[in-house]
């Protein structure tokens, strides 16, 4: 049994300590915005924030997360989809299939907290998520548009 703080809510998860955080979030808590992609922390579809840092939840066991740590999923980034990154994503038609986008947005949100005005090089270094559709140019434009709104997370 694990107690987690997800999107500001305390939840109890009855799962093996070795269960990846991704599956606790999706299967036990029912928040399905965080996606399974590769299962080896390469693609980034499973990216969530853990105490403000972007982490790949598919390889992070429940036993490594304490109830004092704050987990934020795409559902918790903005309850109504008005986070500047989400607004920019819609305005610029960033996603094609959209599968990677929740993880991509979560990685971008963490970057903007660290670097509110990132350069292209900052974005290239920080956003290592894989997009099978290849919308990287629009991802970069979306991050720059959101950064122009003056957000800090």
TrEMBL record:
Keyword Iron on entry: yes
Domain 2Fe-2S ferredoxin-type: 1-77
One Pfam family recorded for the sequence: Fer2_2
Keywords: 2Fe-2S, Iron, Iron-sulfur, Metal-binding, Oxidoreductase
Keyword Transferase: no
CDD domains assigned to the protein according to its UniProt record, in alphabetical order: fer2
PANTHER family named in the record: BLR6218 PROTEIN (PTHR44379:SF2), OXIDOREDUCTASE WITH IRON-SULFUR SUBUNIT (PTHR44379)
UniProt protein name: (2Fe-2S)-binding protein
Organism, scientific name: Teichococcus vastitatis
């Amino acid at each position: 049994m694990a107690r987690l703080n997800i999107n500001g809510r305390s939840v109890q998860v009855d799962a093996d300590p070795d269960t990846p955080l991704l599956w606790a979030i999706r299967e036990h808590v029912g928040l399905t915005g965080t996606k399974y992609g590769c299962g080896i922390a390469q693609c980034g579809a499973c990216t969530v924030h853990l105490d403000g840092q972007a982490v790949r939840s598919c390889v992070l066991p429940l036993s490594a997360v304490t109830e004092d740590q704050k987990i934020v999923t795409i559902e918790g980034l903005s309850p109504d989809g008005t986070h500047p990154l989400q607004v920019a994503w819609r305005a610029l038609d960033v996603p094609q299939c959209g599968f990677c986008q929740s993880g991509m947005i979560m990685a971008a949100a963490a970057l903007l907290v660290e670097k509110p005005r990132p350069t292209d090089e900052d974005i290239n270094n920080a956003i290592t998520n894989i997009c099978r559709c290849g919308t990287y140019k629009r991802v970069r434009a979306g991050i720059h548009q959101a950064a122009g709104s003056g957000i800090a997370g």
